[in-house]
């Protein structure tokens, strides 16, 4: 069996995460037991939720264990199989982690799924037609539940979730405004991703300025907000929400490194009779087939053309991950192994 | 026609509200036009929401206008009528304001409703079988939507809303824990109102201490919270909410006097996948008949025995109102005029 380079979580961040929290190592790939499948990973997915799991704090998911392979989504190709449903050469999506190979129990629910690469590129199953896409779908469809003509806002607009959100929102005939970092991302959001408008948060670094930009971009107020970031952007959005608005809380990345970030004026939730709801897409697996079908259709129709930031080789994963947390990526952040 | 003593809002509070914000005056009662009804008020309702309306800030309701009679709920008896549906002697509930008489258009929707005083005391239509009762019902039934065995918490537990909440929660076979100010109110909450436990917030004046008290009172965590207060109590509750918990935001009285009170850690909404929803009961009039029917039944069965704090005479209204905002009342705060 082949040798298996892998990246472990070596120690937990004190404040900001650094490359020294990770360790590159190599292990043997065990021989397959009956029912197991050997997958060679072509791409690793890097996602903001992983930062939360690096902390040893009570959260929805167990913390990433120390000294073990960083967990995460992967796409790849079956190299060997002792499971009747998987054949060498099959394209698969799974949770193989930050390593070159994984050995997977073919029957473990949700751990390995064959995918069609004739119409959708393999890497998209980690982004637009994968967990981030379904995340956008769930927050939009199940929490924000917009009606035609609503004004919707999403932060981290050019990321994997934001891109899918824009396409899904347009399919529902909503006006969709993004928030992203820098003029290049904002131009791309409008030109390529179908946003009606995109606000550069770097040009609006405080609540008052951001609230002003939101007022200009959303003259009819905001009916739905998809939150990937937290912090002062959420405070500014709250000032511009319409009565009966809905906020889907998906990420609060701004608060991962240290003290919790407060919400300045929660009374606005009452004053405007808002619904604010947190969710984790992996707890709603029953919705995935419906969401993936819509996302796959949008990709095949050319209405969802996600951008990818691709780092080369396993050793580049930690730096690419830390860069993504700072918004250095542009679109879905991947690591290409093959 | 009789002379009509009344209390106006004379000027707006700078920070804390004071008796000097109000002015007692007297007006003529106009002769009735066709379709109008003259009501003599027996009780005025004093409610926390009125404090919010004294500020000149953007909120769900227009601010209470300066120089006009303080608006509010009233129960009384028809003295004269030029409307076919109302007869002298009818008991009615309406929005007559802080005055002795009101002249009401009998056809104005929601402004005047005949009530049965054979089975429910007249004053209860301002409390347990009125707006506060329906408020408790809506937050519990439509937002918290508990299942049998859930642990529910309500602040301002011995107030009109809290009392009704306890009876409604018990009818749904939930464990219900109150938060109130002082040992006397807490003992009453448990002995008379049916709370399983009541926490004295004066003995727990900070987040950490309150969170500890909630942990002791709710060993299985909190599934639903009905918020009448805001501030540090909400922060403490957020620390003890179970996954998929629901928070109905009804009042944020703690923040009325000055700067908005922040929420310390909104990321908990995401971490525990909570739903936090604000509401105003007057926007859900379609639900009132169902809610009032259940509340009336609970009163008649002796399962909801609300307590009232009754101030005597119109001139006592401002002081009684300000005392209520500080929790000096015990149960529904009324002003008796007749």
What does this structure look like?
Two copies of one chain form a homodimer. The first copy, chain A, is an alpha/beta fold. Chain A folds into two domains: 3-127 and 306-336, Quinone Oxidoreductase, Chain A, domain 1 (Alpha-Beta Complex), CATH 3.90.180; 131-282, Rossmann fold (3-Layer(aba) Sandwich). Chain A contains nine helices and 15 strands. In chain A, strands 3, 4, 5, 6, 7, 14 and 15 form a seven-stranded mixed β-sheet that branches. In chain A, helix 2 crosses helix 3, helix 2 (131-144) crosses helix 8 (288-300) and helix 5 packs across helix 6 (232-240). Chain A is globular and about 60 Å long. The A-B interface holds A 58-60, 230, 234, 243, 249-252, 255, 260-267, 269-280, 283 and B 58-60, 230, 234, 243, 249-252, 255, 260-267, 269-280, 283. Strand 13 of chain A pairs antiparallel with strand 13 (275-278) of chain B, so a sheet runs across the interface.
